[in-house]
Amino acid sequence: MASEYLEHKLTLLPDAPGCYLMKNAAGHIIYVGKAKNLKNRVRSYFKSSHTGKVAKMVEEVADFETIVTSTNKESFLLEITLIQKHQPYFNIKLKRGTGYPYIKITKERDPQIKITGQIKNDGADYFGPYPNVYAAEETVHFIQKVYPLRRCNGYQGRPCLYYHIGQCLGACFKDVPPSVYEAQIKRIKSFLNGNTGQIKAELTRKMNQAAASLEFERAAELRDQLHYIEVTVEKQKIISNDKTPRDVINYYFDKGWLSLQIFFIRQARLMKREKRLFPVVDSASEELTSFILQFYQRKNNILPKELLLPKGLPNKELAAILGIPVRTPQRGEKVHLLEMAEENARLSLNEKFRLLEMDKQKTTGAMTEITNALGLPTAHKIEAFDHSHIQGADPVSAMVVFVDGEPAKKLYRKYKLTTVINHADETASTKEVIRRRYSRLLKENKPLPDMIMMDGGAIQMDAVKDVLENELGLQIPVVGMVKNDKHRTADLLFGPNDEHVDLNPRSQGFYLVQRIQDEVHRFAITFHRRVHTKHSLSSRLDEIKGVGPRTRTKLLKAFGSIDKIAEASVDEIHALGINEKTAQLIKVSLQKRAAVNRGSSHD
């Protein structure tokens, strides 16, 4: 139900197109949407019941803003700008670049053919996208053998190796007429657009000639090139009667989830398919429209010559913004392509639902098993702690968080212990980290966990309970995770007397405890190694006269390790801006230490 403040704002909404920005209590924008009628759309969030992601978003809304636009097209453009600027939590957000490989024919006096992921407005010709770099590389290698351009770095007064093997037109030692490049590029473009008949006929003729002349190695090479065409270019079923580069996008919507399928049709074949699954806030058509605009406005993305979409989308506005034809076919093979995309979207979403159900049984079911075994009410959030040190040196603690049986890595925390006198003192280490963690949560008025787990026995548990109950006045269940003599998860400790609680070793609850114990141990060990390595490297450098914090940072940043610094020459060290005398001293000191270490290792 909307607050009184929101109710007042809802009455002031305009009957106009535009964008709305939902904000949480901290003033952060959590969702951006567009509407033909702002009054109707925004009011619908607060005057109707919702489920899933919509309900979660509405619960967090404490305020909203609206921006009125003159036309519906302007609201589309403004929405994408606002999403990219604010990156709201509840919106579909896409990365800037596509990450797809393209084949590029450069625009220069002596053109080359390359693989690139960067699309520039440089007059070059781009072909793709290709499903992966390997597929693009295979195609480029084939073209370089059959239709070579320039393979070398340019004029050098003598033929390059590639010219000798027939993969360069000779820009390395002579002027190649532009007409020769133009004819070759015309053949390459024809091949990349799916016209394979001409090149197959030409290769077959050359292969037969080579065989008749007893040039069997050359004939075998031409045979392999023909085989490449058959197994890579022609192995995909032709799904279109024309060679127009087009994308086909369709969706399936159910239970608040949007499943998208994008078919990249190139060379009359399905070159690549991409699928996306999102929990959404707005209607399926609105979310799909937002996705399409973001998808095609990213960097390193070549627009197709045509975009096919299902009915119900604003094709006219999308075409005006993207600058390409956007159509909804009514009959024929294009309708079949849309139906195929929709069916694949449906199958992907159904698979997602099945996996979610299985995960729910494994995670929330595992949490229920643990709380039932301990005699506790239902729990959602567990925080687990572990310590790490080497003979008391560089003591650290680490905390991992599991919510409904899944790791919430953004909530993990690391602690360098500072108040512990005896660094191997488990009680003191535990008290410090628990005191720091939960006094801060209380001070910031943040939610507490439903359960605390300690990787250890009664000593750690008693220390936790002492701080929580006697210092902070908190009543949070504390559970110990016990390991057997093989250092593997065995059972739990719980209760006033720290009694052993057995779990079925084949149950999901046991597996969850095992995951928590392994994860917190891994996190603590990884953190400790990083701290210890940094300290040991720093201390060894600090022993050298003339090396202060700034010089030490330069050395470690440039070389990464003591061994690499020791291997570096005095000139390389001096090149970092370190005076020559100090550079010589660093070199001699580290080499001397390395020699001592080698000698002690042989004793």
Structural description of this entry:
- Keywords: Cytoplasm, DNA damage, DNA excision, DNA repair, Excision nuclease, SOS response.
- The UvrABC repair system catalyzes the recognition and processing of DNA lesions. UvrC both incises the 5' and 3' sides of the lesion. The N-terminal half is responsible for the 3' incision and the C-terminal half is responsible for the 5' incision.
- This protein has five domains: 4-86, GIY-YIG endonuclease (3-Layer(aba) Sandwich), CATH 3.40.1440; 102-233, no CATH class; 246-350, archaeoglobus fulgidus dsm 4304 fold, CATH 3.30.2170; 381-531, UvrC, RNAse H endonuclease domain (Nucleotidyltransferase, domain 5, 2-Layer Sandwich), CATH 3.30.420; 543-602, DNA polymerase, domain 1 (Orthogonal Bundle), CATH 1.10.150.
- It has 19 helices and 19 strands.
- The strands form four sheets. Strands 12, 13, 14, 15, 16, 17, 18 and 19 form an eight-stranded mixed beta sheet that branches.
- Helix 4 (72-86) packs across helix 10 and helix 8 runs antiparallel to helix 9.
- A hairpin with a 2-residue loop joins strand 13 and strand 14.
- With 603 residues, it is an alpha+beta fold.
- The protein has helices at residues 4-11, 38-47, 52-60, 72-86, 133-146, 161-164, 178-192, 197-212, 216-233, 284-296, 315-322, 333-374, 426-443, 458-472, 508-542, 549-559, 562-567, 570-574, 580-602, and strands at 18-23, 29-35, 63-68, 102-105, 113-116, 125-127, 246-254, 257-266, 269-279, 306-308, 326-327, 381-390, 393-403, 406-407, 413-416, 451-455, 478-483, 489-494, 499-501.
